[in-house]
């Protein structure tokens, strides 16, 4: 475990000792990822009502004591000519060929993926996320 990794603020010494055990650290990560998946589900369920509430206020910026909510546009989409689409596909092919014959100059960090296997009817069946190391 990294020296700069701090235990949770509300952890007592028993919890801290347990978190020094690699299996307990892994179990704690799984528990947190499960909580995160359930929160994400709640956020997705609330999102349509949230968007409707923001539109109802008819402003680009909504400020409260706890957050500032701003309106943004998603990236635009264009109907490119077939010539441009063909050039784009050729560029993608050239990039793939280049990547196969050259080493990357950055990236390739080791990560560990956590894939939750939840059987509860209220939870998602599988959620995958990465944890950098």
Give a quick summary of the entry.
The protein is of the alpha+beta class and 133 residues long. It has helices spanning 13-19, 22-57, 82-101; strands at 61-63, 68-70, 111-117, 126-132.
Task: Explain what this protein looks like in three dimensions.
- The protein has 133 residues and is α+β, with helices and mostly antiparallel strands.
- The chain has a domain at 11-71.
- It is built from three helices and four strands.
- The strands form two sheets. The protein has a two-stranded antiparallel sheet with strand order 1-2. It has a two-stranded antiparallel sheet with strand order 3-4.
- A hairpin with an 8-residue loop joins strand 3 (111-117) and strand 4.
- The longest helix is centred in the N-terminal third of the chain and has 36 residues, at 22-57.
- The chain is flat, with a radius of gyration of 23 Å.
- It starts with 12 loop residues before the first helix and ends with a strand.
- 0% of the residues are buried.
- Mean pLDDT is 82; it is low at 1-5 and 121-131.
